[in-house]
Design a protein that fits this description.
The protein is an alpha/beta fold. The protein has twelve helices and 19 strands. The chain folds into two domains: about 10-230, Spore Coat Polysaccharide Biosynthesis Protein SpsA, Chain A, CATH 3.90.550.10; about 240-389, 3-Layer(aba) Sandwich (Rossmann fold).
């Protein structure tokens, strides 16, 4: 009998041995590991009572736990290249059953789909719980003309090649995204596969159908993330900033005596002032050795560490000294030497003209350039989060 406390669970199989994209399940899209994105999508569906990640990899397990999931240790015999997702799901269900947890509905999510629609997932779970369907899958509407190659040449699959009806005169088809599947647990246990009984379609936008199985698809997802993740409030406990290209426009003027000067924004200064008034710890962390960095920090009333070559180590030490969790810290940068710092915080942020390597590590890409309102924009998004909290 199903436990009344657990009507539905999500299980995310995430093995560690990907060859196409090494370390794929913890690769970052929008600055967030893929498995974390999947866990968050499941946790955002109110109908799901608990989220489990089935993995054979210690690094994936640590990331999953940090995201709020429980971990099921996946045996090596069902974690190889030929292992099926179904074998991982059935094993996880057996582990849950041994703990007295027997959900009525199972939601199977794939971490390789970075843009899972939580609302569509929640609706699908409720539909299966209500008995409307026995199993469901995410898919998007398509009017594509499909062809198959054959010895006789190309053959139309879903159309007659002699007639090309207009889009409005054609019936749509639905392309499976692979992002999530929802099924009645007993039926899945009985059959051992994900489609059975009355099958329903959980319709999502085509953008939610991005799947990552190759490096170029990971690059595509990273490019799309800044557009698809939206303008979410930035909920952090501290802000750490690079200087050149963030506080400045990354240019410098030099007079006849060799004295350098940089250009900063009064608007940015106002934003930093508002953050300081709200009590958020801030730090300028710069490789630049010019005394202008310390002068700007003093003007803004914030701490400065400059002439720093190893930013990640300095950032870790500063956070330890202030009792801060790196997951609750925003770091904003623009260039390749910022990447190690961007990769260790919960909120990696870049300006719009950031180096591609830095942009790929970012969770947030600002719309305003460095030295021209970027920090004011960031400050306002942090303050919105604090007001909502």
């Amino acid at each position: 009998m199903s436990s009344p406390e657990t009507k539905a669970v999500a299980i995310i199989p995430a093995r560690g041995g990907s060859k196409g994209v090494p370390g794929k399940n913890i690769a970052r899209v929008g600055g967030v590991p893929l498995v974390t994105r999947a866990v968050r999508a499941a946790l955002a569906a109110p109908s799901i009572d608990a989220v489990y990640v089935s993995t054979d990899d210690a690094a994936i397990a640590a990331v999953a736990r940090a995201a709020g999931a429980r971990v099921v240790d996946r045996p090596s015999e069902i974690a190889g290249d030929t292992a099926t997702s179904e074998s991982a799901l059935l094993h996880a269900l057996d582990v849950l059953a041994a703990d007295g947890i027997e959900p009525r509905v199972l939601a199977f999510l794939q971490a390789t789909s970075p843009f899972i629609d939580s609302a569509a997932l929640d609706s699908a779970v409720r539909s299966v719980l209500d008995g409307n369907y026995d199993s469901m899958f995410s898919a998007f509407e398509t009017y594509a003309f499909l062809w198959a190659d054959s010895a006789e040449g190309a053959v139309g699959v879903n159309h007659d090649r002699s007639f090309r009806p207009r889009r409005q005169d054609r019936e749509p088809h639905y392309q499976e995204t692979g992002a999530f599947y929802v099924m009645e647990t007993a039926g899945f246990r009985d059959r051992g596969f994900r489609f059975f009984g009355r099958v329903g379609i959980a319709e999502v936008e085509q953008s939610a159908g991005v799947e990552i199985d190759a490096v170029h698809e990971l690059d595509l997802a990273r490019t799309l993330a800044s557009f698809l993740d939206g303008m979410e409030p930035i909920d952090v406990d501290a802000l750490v900033m690079d200087f050149d290209g963030v506080h400045t426009d990354d240019t410098v003027s030099v007079d006849q005596h060799g004295v350098e000067a940089v250009r900063v924004s009064r608007s940015d200064g106002m934003g930093i002032g508002k953050l300081r008034a709200s009590g958020i710890p801030m730090l300028i962390l710069s490789k630049e050795r010019n005394p202008v960095v310390a002068a700007r920090g003093a003007k803004l009333g914030i701490e400065v560490l400059h002439a720093v070559d190893d930013k990640a180590t300095a950032l870790r030490e500063w956070c330890v000294g202030h009792g801060l969790d790196l997951e609750r810290v925003a770091y904003v940068g623009n260039d390749v030497n910022d990447v190690p710092a961007l990769e260790i915080v919960g909120w990696p942020v870049v300006v719009p003209d950031a180096h591609p390597d830095a942009a790929r590590a970012a969770r947030v890409t600002l719309t305003r350039p460095g030295g021209a309102g970027a920090l004011r924009e960031l400050a306002e998004r942090i303050l919105v989060a604090r007001e909502l909290g």
